[in-house]
Amino acid sequence: MGPPQDYRQRLVGDFRLGSTRRAPTSSFANRKESAHETTRCGHRPRPPGARRPLARPARLQQGRARRRLRQQPRHPEAAAGTAPGPRTHPCPGQLLDEVAPDFVVVAVPHHAGREVVQECASRGVHVLKEKPFATSVREARELAQICQDGQVELMVTLQRRFNPIYTSVAGMLDQIGTPFLIDGQYTFHTDDPGAGWRGDIRQAGGGCIIDMGYHLIDLLLWYFGLPNRVIAEFSTTAVPGGGYDAEDTAVIQLGYDDGLYGSVLLSRWVAPKTESLHVVGTRGRYC
Asked: pTM above the 0.90 mark?
């Protein structure tokens, strides 16, 4: 068999794409050959001076239907002012009593999560909580005990653990020998790193480490386990006079007794957005 045909050489109708074969004889017989007689993609050429044919009726109808659809509101009830608004409740307990769910996704500011989890556990409702798990070690232990007493499952949204990009790292690390150096970085820029409750350490429990840095730190714990030594330096000076006390930037040094060590840079002020993890081993490196 010869080499496979390029996809551009496949037959289209009776002609090949890009060929210069003459079109079949049409009713306009005996006209002189010209460049107008070449064909591409199987379209029969129009005779010189002929007008462009009108679109098919079906295409016209489709075009009109699309225009009507664009003109119609996506939510007619909202346009008419008859759509019900979002239901609000003064407290999580009232919402749970009214809806009686089996499972709840808790995505609230950090300081408000504890109350919602407590209300769910007291009613036997399982919880998937947006990170962080808690705002302090003490609160984490108390929440774990509350859910254990209520016999409910409490999970944290760490979606990278279900992403094939990150789940495949363990197999790749086996190919670089014994890891001895880690370099992690997760940064992006926001104009006001202390805006709202995120800038108040009493409400947020911390800044870039417990917020966006939570994901990268979780990956390091997943791949390498808890470090034996941790040294961290924080900064709240990216915006002079910003009035916030939750760190906008942090540099963390990690050390393991088996000779592995590394550093992590986290920031919600440093541009451009970067998320990277470099691991150096005795037989190579992973990036």
From this structure: no
